[in-house]
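input
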Amino acid sequence: MKYGETLLRVRYAETDQMGVVYHANYLNWMEVGRTEFFRQLGMPYSEIEKNELFLPVTKVYCHYKAPARYDDLIRISTTISSLQDVRLIFKYEIYRANTNELLASGETEHAFVNSKGKPVVLKKYNPFLWRRMQDVTGEKAE
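output
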């Protein structure tokens, strides 16, 4: 299974009064991770949208393990943990880059929908993208 990695520097605006990254920012970092994951695969999300395919989040989970702080360099590791006909699950691990300390782990589940918000079966709607996603996950389901 392939994975993507993205480095980010924690901005002051992402921290709370205690100097700790506000919890909702981890969800934003997951979005950055999956956007860069697609880009690293040669499939920028903007190109996917140009084909009238969208991936709204249907579920999200985040387990916080240690706080990130202002000016930390963080590394977001992103993988696809499940690929199904009408949905996709990403797995994330967020680390403090200089110590490799795991700060948070999580998942997001996404539906494949068309421009009208209706679910689509990816392998029928966009066979090329379906095959590419199978290559990434190592799955060869029919």
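quick obs: The first strand starts at residue 3 and ends at 9.
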